[in-house]
Amino acid sequence: MSKALLQIENLKTSFYTQNGEVQAVRGINLELRAGEALGIVGESGSGKSVMSMSVLRLLPDNAKIKEGKISFNGKVISVLSKKEIRVIRGKDIAMVFQDPMSSLNPLISVGEQVAEMIRIHYPKTGKTEMRSRVLELFHLVKIPEPEKRYKNLPHEFSGGMRQRVMIALALACKPDILIADEPTTALDVTIQAQILKLLANLQKELGMSILFITHDLGVVMQLCSRAIVMYGGMKMEEGSMEDLFLHSRHPYTMGLIRSIPKIGQDKSVPLQPILGSPPDMLNPPAGCPFAPRCPYARKICASQVPPYTAIKNHHFSACWLVTEDAPATNNPFAQSSTTA
Amino acid sequence: MKLLEVKNLIKHFPVKNHKGQVVHAVDDVSFHINEGETLGLVGESGCGKSTCARTIIRIYDPTGGEIIFDGQNLATLSQRELKPIRKNMQMIFQDPYTSLNGRMTVRDIIAEPLIAHKIGNSQKERHEMVAQMLKQVGLNTEHGTRYAHEFSGGQRQRIGIARALILKPKLVICDEPISALDVSIQAQIINLLTEFQQKEKLTYLFIAHDLSVVEYISDHVGVMYLGKLVELSESKELYKNPLHPYTQGLLASIPALDIHAGKITDKAEMSGDLPSPISLPSGCRFCGRCPYAKKICAEAEPPMKEAAPGHMVACYLYS
Ligand SMILES: Nc1ncnc2c1ncn2[C@@H]1O[C@H](COP(=O)(O)OP(=O)(O)OP(=O)(O)O)[C@@H](O)[C@H]1O
Ligand SMILES: Nc1ncnc2c1ncn2[C@@H]1O[C@H](COP(=O)(O)OP(=O)(O)OP(=O)(O)O)[C@@H](O)[C@H]1O
Ligand SMILES: [Mg+2]
Ligand SMILES: [Mg+2]
Fold it and tell me: Is there a single domain that holds both residue B108 and residue B195?
């Protein structure tokens, strides 16, 4: 196994609002290895964005990292000042967001914006070299006719093309890590497929690591080799795509996969939804965050957070049902655990 | 029996500050829905799905064409003549957050259509009907006294459904009813909609961009591209045997929940962007992105033809 490029240890991030403390991230551990595409899957409010914004310290003022250690390339970056982290942002770790319009300056041409990003980190770059580097980046992200497009303003681009500009911007300083926070959620499926393919090829060609955040299990499956399933600010399960889709050891992951209709599915059979609704992070459940909706929940699930248990190499689950003294009845993992 | 038949429906919007130019939002679209069945409408953003729905229930006035509902052409009726018919066609919207009035209690929101259509003799009777409805969508009477903002997205969509169904309409137009909901909530709402359909013999026009959801819920599916219906067939057939190159590309782009489907890098992608609906290409609207385009495709728009039994497609590959 290659060593961790980015390591997050026991990260806890909260927002302090008029209604109280919103516990958005509640103790996340994560390792992103060099060259890998790691998926972070979870539904709305599960803490995906807050986690990634904690890494680059892009949080709003009412947010605070309460606990935890974040290291990049072996160096602890969570202790750096906001000013010091700015040197890392863009150059070592870059980010692409869901809505490119809100992160692009509407008044400056797309070419100039990319040039500006290079200038921040490499102020000595000459004019002609700068222009050719920008054009090279546009070429890399497959913006057609880059010379003609250089002077265009963001609104003169379609949504998919804008997202390409955002990716060019993120790649401007050849970062080691790209954090992509739902970069395709606002796009049509055909455009989404184009962007995903672009990211996958960039990862291969540049050897870049990608932390890909999404609520779409299908997207993760196409792009990533490994994924983490989040719920209520915590990790529920982690493993390879095969682990999660064929041998899941967590009722939440299983429920999600089961509830999504698949092409060709029998229409006369009702879908199997997960009942209830996601937790309120102002008052998160004391035990497992999924317990109130879990068909297998027992007493202990409501009161104590389950340990993060290794199922096999690199496959982990936070569920009382996979622990050593789990009951044999009403336990979907009881017999099959040896046959996986 | 046909409950709704749309014939050559056209809706153009004028372009601001550009006299004479129009957005071809819906262009010559024809289809029908049988009573008790569901027609799914799919296609990329801006292809005209919502405009089509809104023109059918006459939120917009059609530029041309006929809308035959229950034997009557709605296209030419005045808003006053439409009012009694509206009772039979209701709409469920995408955004449960903005489509409900935040200052009204849930009970008042659901009772509003009853009052508008003078149904129920007293407030008590109406409240009784609302309580019944709340129960059917999985909420309880107590929920009725609260305000919409106190509910989660999934619960708000249940309220939206209760409001649409309390008049016992025949046709319900669902415009992206689950797109704004959490993944874990979507199946709850889909089940609710299909349960109601079976119980009340409802007819649905179901718009969504999630192709697997549309396949699951629909009897027939229509595929739109830039204001045009390019393919229309039974749902199963369309997904098994897509004919139009656009439909093929669309289906190939779905990130399938299938471990054996392969990684994105192994897939062929559909290149190009959607052209502008204002200055349209002269021939087939998909021509510029089509891997099979021939000379004729750029010259004249292909007509809709039956390429296989009950399977309509507008593409020169099949004529
Ligand atoms: N500025 C803020 N103030 C208060 N609470 C916030 C703020 N931003 C996020 N939160 C809360 O933090 C929690 C985690 O939010 P986060 O944005 O990380 O979710 P997410 O997993 O990225 O969801 P989505 O899929 O909707 O983007 C949620 O409960 C959210 O309400
Ligand atoms: N009220 C309006 N005035 C002017 N143009 C409009 C209006 N409503 C829609 N349009 C245009 O008509 C076209 C079709 O839009 P419509 O909203 O019907 O698409 P859609 O298929 O529902 O897309 P989406 O998937 O994004 O909801 C678009 O080009 C849109 O910009
Ligand atoms: Mg987010
Ligand atoms: Mg729409």
Answer: no
Q: Tell me, what's the pLDDT at A201? A: 92
Contact across the interface for A204 and B255, Cβ inside 8 Å: no
- When divided into structural domains, chain B yields a total of 2
Ligand 1 pocket member A201 (CB < 6 A) = no
Residues present in chain A in total? 340
- Position B101 scores a pLDDT of 85
Structure confidence at residue A334 (pLDDT): 85
Q: Which of B194, B263, B273 sits opposite A270 (nearest CB)?
A: B194
pLDDT of the residue at A335: 65
Q: In 10 A of CB A110, how many CB atoms?
A: 28
Q: What's the average model confidence in pLDDT over B271-287?
A: 85
- ipTM of model: 0.86
Which residues neighbour A218 within 8 Å (Cβ) at sequence distance 6 or greater?
B254, B255, B256, B257
Q: How far is B269 from chain A (nearest CA, A)?
A: 6
User: Per residue in B254-269, pLDDT tens?
Assistant: 887 888 877 888 887 7
Q: Are residues B6 and B44 in the same domain?
A: yes
Residue that finishes a domain, picked among B150, B168, B186 = B168
Q: What is the pLDDT of residue B297?
A: 96
Q: Would you say the CB of residue B275 lies under 6 angstroms from ligand 2?
A: no
Domain boundaries, position B131: 99-168
Shortest alpha-carbon distance between residue B10 and chain A (Å):
24
CATH of the domain at B304: 3.40.50.300
Q: Is the pLDDT of residue B173 over 80?
A: yes
What is the rounded (10 degree) CA torsion for B61, B65, B70, B74? 30
Which residue lies with its CA nearest to atom 17 of ligand 2? B50
Average pLDDT over residues B32-47: 95
Which of B113, B145, B168 is the endpoint of a domain?
B168
Residue whose CA lies nearest to ligand 2 atom number 22:
B50
Other CB atoms closer than 10 Å to residue B124's CB: what's the count?
9
B70 φψ region: left (φ > 0), alpha (ψ -120 to 50), beta (else): left
Chain B residues within 8 A of A196 when measuring between CB atoms: 255, 264
Q: Please indicate, yes or no, if residue B303 is contained in any of the structural domains.
A: yes
CA distance B69 to B57: 10
Establish if A105 touches chain B: CB-CB under 8 angstroms.
no
Q: How many Å lie between the alpha carbon of A215 and the closest alpha carbon of chain B?
A: 7
Of B183, B191, B253, the CB nearest to A43: B183
Q: Please check whether residues B140 and B125 belong to one and the same domain.
A: yes
Percent of chain B with pLDDT over 90: 74
**Does the beta carbon of A47 lie inside 6 Å of ligand 1?**
yes
| B124 in the same domain as B67 | no
Residues of chain A with pLDDT under 50: 1, 337-340
